[in-house]
Amino acid sequence: MLQxxxxxxxxxxxxxxxxxxxxxxFCEEDQRPLCVSCLSAPEHKDHQVLPLETAADKCKKKLRExxxxxxxKEEKFQTALDTLRRxxxxxxxxxYTLKETTISEYGKIHxxxxxxxxxxxQNLEQQSRVNVVKLEEKEHxxxxxxxxxxxxxxxxxxxxxxxxxxxxxxxxxxxxxxxxLLLKKPVLSYIFWPTCPVRGMREILMSFHRDITFxxxxxxxxLVLSEDLKRVQYGSIYQDLPDNKEGFESGLVVLGAQxxxxxxxxxxxxxxxxTAWELGICKDSVRRKGLISSSSEDIMK
Length: 301
Fold this sequence. Notes:
The protein has helices at 2-11, 36-39, 52-160, 164-183, 201-206, and strands at 25-27, 32-34, 49-51, 223-225, 232-234, 281-282, 299-300. The chain is mainly alpha-helical and 301 residues long. Strands 2-1-3 form a three-stranded antiparallel sheet. It has a two-stranded antiparallel sheet with strand order 4-5. Strands 6-7 form a two-stranded antiparallel sheet. Strand 4 and strand 5 form a beta hairpin. Helix 3 runs antiparallel to helix 4 (164-183).
């Protein structure tokens, strides 16, 4: 009497609503439990029907297979997560090490620059002392010569006030002194102007170096550009160029092709032997037609 009840409890059997019997089978097509009476129904005739326990075992096998797949997948993701965390820790440690190294290396550069600055200032001080001594000696010599000239002038003035005979008699000695002084010429001591080149400045500037070329579209018709667009010279012949809204009409102007909106930039310009020129930077809005004023807000020289 208890066996059906215990089996129902063990298997979790349900009762068929239509026949009132225990549903001890399972239809895989319809995915629903069936009782014995349901098996003879036409709708289940060609369906795959298994005992509920067999169907449960089959389902359990599939679930275990899926669980194993999920377990392996989880292990792979866990391995990836552990690797990522190790990399994160290594990255943090390396960043800290690089920061410490950078601070140390730049500290050495700072110390080197401080030593260079100190040595440069010492050299300037030494050069200054040597040259100041020479200048002071020359200053004393010139002062003495001026005093001698003033003394002779005073003697000449005294002779001018003497009686004629006495003036004539004393004149040779006075003139002799005058001639000796007149032969002397003021000589300035040659000094070496102090210098203190800042080493490495050019290398620092070169990190901001930009290769500048001219923009032929902006060139005035009297300006002739080289093929590499890095040299310009005045041409006496007015070039018959197509009407170009970017070109300058009045001023002998040509712009660089490069444009900058921020940052630090460095370039050098050789002016040759020309003495009349202006160099600077301007905004895109600079006036191209008509007279150009160098005091315009669009031009910075």
